[in-house]
Amino acid sequence: MFEKRALMFLYAISPVHMGAGQAIGVVDNPIQRERHTNHPIFAGSGLKGALRDVFQAKEGDELTGRIFGPEASASDHAGAVSFSDAGVVLFPVRSLRESYAYVTSPTALARLRRAAQLCELDLDWQVPEVSNDSQCLVTSSQSKLLFGSGGQGAGQSLVLETFEFQVEADDEVAKVAAWLANRAILSEDGFHYFREKLKKDLVVLSDTRFKYYVENGTIVEPHVRINDESGTADDGGLFYTENVPPEALFVSLVLASRERVKKGAEEDQLLTSSEVLKALVETLHGEVVQIGGDATTGRGLVALSVVSKS
Q1: In which band, very low, low, confident or very high, does the pLDDT at 154 lie, cut at 50, 70 and 90?
Q2: Helix/strand/coil for 302
Q3: Residues in domain CRISPR type III-associated protein (predicted)?
Q4: Staple 219 to which of 28, 127, 243, 269, CB 3.0 to 4.6 Å?
Q5: How sure is the predictor about 24, in pLDDT bands with cuts at 50, 70 and 90?
Q6: Residue 254 CB: number of other CB atoms within 10 A?
Q7: Rounded to 5°, angle at Cα 91 from 209 and 161
Q8: Hey, CA dihedral for 100, 102, 105, 107, is it positive or negative?
């Protein structure tokens, strides 16, 4: 039984390709998506493998085996940690002003709120409501994302890609932006700009509009397969790979149990669930790790922020 929990935010700093392994449409290598929402996800199984490598490099084989489970004889005992699939929280969308906006939706925020409550984290915000598909909520009527006049958001507009939205400033959106910026994005100097941008440039859309952007706003890259003998492009070697764009934010649950042990073995000095979670938080928080495919082309770099109840 997993007794302790923490939130793990994954902030993409390069395109990420967590492959689905099957192609139905024109994209040959699509990313993983959730069945009922079609939102991009990072499967927990893929995350666990990548995070095990990071943990092993920092903490060594012995502690890694105790927490993640034995690598060679997996039937001896299970690991003491699990990672849920990471769901999308924020998605970057090109804006007419200020380069891009961090976009989210009521459903994405409700899921984040539920996960945070499971981890017993303090929450000072409620999920805002968006009245229709033409409306968006922003942190302030003074946001530089906006254009037009009217004051207090009235008469102001925001353009994302080719769609124009009527704007309403909402205090809850400002609270969400500050809460996320202070927890989901690292405090190191290199991330300072993005923390401050998130506080100013968070936009809440309807679930319908958010779904449109996470379905159509991904990066689709053409690749050419090279023939090993000729060194030139293979006939019919053109294929397309889909990536989650940089600046997207995902969240996963980190679940910890007491250390498990092989049947018949001594159970003295086993790690408690609190000790397992503490080791994971201290080792993984602040790390930049590689997940998914195309690692040699710089894909899959994410910055981890692991947040637990203090």
Answers
A1: low
A2: strand
A3: 10-302
A4: 243
A5: low
A6: 26
A7: 55
A8: positive
CA atoms of 215 and 182, how far apart (whole Å)? 28
CA separation, residue 178 to residues 6, 94, 101, 212 (Å): 19, 21, 15, 25
| pLDDT above 60: residue 82 | yes
Rounded Cα distance between 91 and 198, Å, is 11
Structure tokens at 174: 């400002």
3-state secondary structure of 268: coil
Can you tell me whether residue 42 is helix, strand or coil? strand
Say which DSSP state 33 is in: B
3-state secondary structure of 211: helix
Q: 29 is written with which tokens?
A: 């290598």
The tokens 């899921």 sit on which residue?
A: 111
Total Cβ atoms within 10 A of residue 110: 13
Of residues 119, 62, 106, 117, the one with CA closest to residue 204? 106
Which token pair is 57?
Answer: 């490099």
pLDDT of 284 higher than 80: yes
Q: Give dist(CA 34, CA 22) in Å, integer.
A: 14
Nearest Cα to Cα of residue 38 among 30, 50, 28? 30
- The domain spans of the chain are 4-308
Place of tokens 């941008």: 197
CB 304 within 8 A of CB 250: no
The Cα–Cα gap between 204 and 125 comes to 14
Residue with the two structure tokens 């459903």:
107
Q: How far apart are CA 79 and CA 63, in angstroms?
A: 11
CA distance 205 to 130: 7
Tokens of 84: 């849920």
HSE, side-chain direction, 13 A CA sphere, residue 101: 27
CA distances from 199 to 127, 172, 180, 193, 256 (A): 16, 12, 8, 10, 31
Longest Cα–Cα distance in the chain: 74
